């Protein structure tokens, strides 16, 4: 009886490993923005995370998790740039911050640089979106502020 139980579990577990891959979820709208930038991915709960493989190593450098994909992408860019130099393929090649101390940076210092950039960009992006949504909801017609107009009477000739 006991032997039977063991064989049945072993066959079941082997068949489980050969299960077909679950089909892609077709019920929600197709998201083209799965991977808007290199080196980042989206968590189920909507945070964007970035990490990078160290060259010639199996290890990865964790580059933080961010609210906006742009911040994660900028953190990734920073790390790639410090690891691979100017030849690296970047998300935003024109935004990379060139510095002198490129050579032989440790994983820790690369992580520090990347997360600093990512955090700064994230704060900017979040503030930007906040102000955008505010200005969209409150549509005040631009009235000229009459107090600001230069008064022709009060010119230099007193």
TrEMBL record:
Keywords: DNA-binding, Ethylene signaling pathway, Nucleus, Transcription, Transcription regulation. One of its GO terms (cellular component) is nucleus. SMART domains: AP2. It is found in: Nucleus. One of its GO terms (biological process) is ethylene-activated signaling pathway. Residues 36-93 form the AP2/ERF domain. One of its GO terms (molecular function) is DNA binding. CDD domains: AP2. Residues 18-29 have a biased composition (Basic residues). Residues 1-38, 130-158 are annotated as: Disordered. Gene3D superfamilies: AP2/ERF domain. Probably acts as a transcriptional activator. Binds to the GCC-box pathogenesis-related promoter element. May be involved in the regulation of gene expression by stress factors and by components of stress signal transduction pathways. Belongs to the AP2/ERF transcription factor family. ERF subfamily. This is AP2/ERF domain-containing protein.
